[in-house]
Design goal:
Elements (H helix, E strand, L loop, with lengths): L1 E8 L5 E8 L9 E8 L2 H9 L13 E5 H6 L2 H8 L9 E5 L3 H6 L8 H14 L8 H8 L6 E8 L2 E11 L2 E6 L1 H11 L5 E8 L14 E19 L4 E15 L8 H29 L6 H8 L7 H8 L3 E13 L4
Parallel strand pairs: 1-4, 4-5, 5-6, 11-12
Antiparallel strand pairs: 1-2, 2-3, 6-7, 7-8, 9-10, 10-11
């Protein structure tokens, strides 16, 4: 039973595939086996893998499909569509991109965990559940791709004997065009979805703190806000020039501050909220500018445009041409609803 599959660009038109397989064999020293093969298609590679196994390799238990960075840059639709058309594979399979070759990621002998496939699946799953990572299943990838929006999936990287969910890979169509780091991914998810238990660390310049800045010794104040709940709204405010308004409301618990401030005073809390709002708006504007420059729309502004402008006959191609000139009016309203233990 294949638990994880990795795909890399091979020579010419070939695809190199790596499979992490759970074998049910009492006589085997290990229940986990890895097989590499190559073919012109992913199914051809699986047929080739069968020739290296004493039992038939089946994909009904596949939990994660990992694609090499260069392969993702060339376009994943043919490979992803093949998985979707396989009736034995569930549409809830996680997708991910590997910073290095997927074969190197899956074939490495990890001392901490012998079953690399299950580790990757559990790592992605628990970070999605804790709202630390975006979800990128096979179903979500294709449903987004066939709208005017763009997919995004986790980016994996091996560091020694560990595997890290490093960034989020963002696409334009089915082609990987760039990445956003975890901080940017927080704001991306804040704009696109709702948080129920997120957290964020912000670095505020002392001049963002207004009247209480004189009480701060350092030029930068670092704050941590946890248990964040959020709500957002997005609307089209101008067709020409193309402009959207983004409103975000956040509520959370302040659990850490690098500055010694009297948080019992309402004026101090208000100053911190004002500084966090300004810094969040700055970060979000930078993120939206970056996504526009990459011509990647994982948030779905194209769908907002299509729903508001009747008879627009919007296609993914026409939207991505328009999207390059989009601008944004961002407003953030962050409220500190309670205080945790402040260090």
């Amino acid at each position: 039973m294949t638990i994880a599959a990795g795909y890399d660009r091979g020579e010419g038109e070939k695809i190199n595939a790596t499979y992490v397989i759970h074998q049910i064999d009492p006589s085997s020293k290990s229940s986990v086996m890895t097989i590499t093969s190559e073919g012109l298609t992913s199914k051809g590679a699986r047929v080739a893998a069968n020739r290296k196994s004493n039992k038939k390799v089946v994909s009904g238990q596949l939990r994660v499909a990992i694609y090499d960075y260069k392969l993702a840059q060339a376009g994943l639709l043919p490979l992803v569509d093949t998985l979707f058309r396989d009736a034995s594979i569930a549409s809830t399979v996680y997708m991910a991109v590997s910073k290095d070759r997927a074969e190197d990621l899956l074939m490495h002998k990890y001392t901490q965990f012998p079953d690399v496939g299950t580790f990757i699946v559990d790592d992605i799953h628990q970070n999605i559940m804790d709202e630390q990572m975006v979800s990128g299943t096979l179903h979500e990838f294709l449903s987004t791709l066939y709208s005017t929006a763009d997919p995004m999936v986790p980016l994996l990287q091996r560091k020694g004997d560990s595997i890290e969910l490093k960034d989020v890979a963002v696409f334009s169509g089915d082609k990987l065009v760039g990445t956003v780091d975890p901080r940017e991914a927080f704001f991306l998810k804040t704009i696109r979805d709702r948080f129920k238990a997120g957290n964020i660390e912000l670095s505020l310049d002392s001049d963002q703190l207004g009247d209480i800045a004189k009480k701060v010794k350092d030029k930068t104040v670092r704050v941590v806000v946890e248990n964040i709940s959020s709500d957002s709204s997005k609307k089209l405010i101008s067709q020409s020039p193309l402009k959207f308004q983004v409103n975000i409301k956040l509520k959370g618990m302040l659990t850490e501050s690098s500055a010694q401030l009297d948080l019992g005073k309402a004026s101090v809390i208000q100053a911190l909220q004002k500084g966090m709002n300004e810094e969040s708006e700055k970060q979000i504007n930078g993120l939206l500018k970056k996504l526009t420059s990459l011509n990647s729309d994982p948030i779905g502004f194209g769908e907002i445009f299509r729903s508001r402008v009747y008879h627009s006959n919007m296609t993914s191609e026409t939207w991505h041409e328009m999207y390059k000139s989009a601008s944004y009016d961002v407003h953030v309203d962050m409220k500190i609803v309670r205080l945790g233990q402040i260090q």
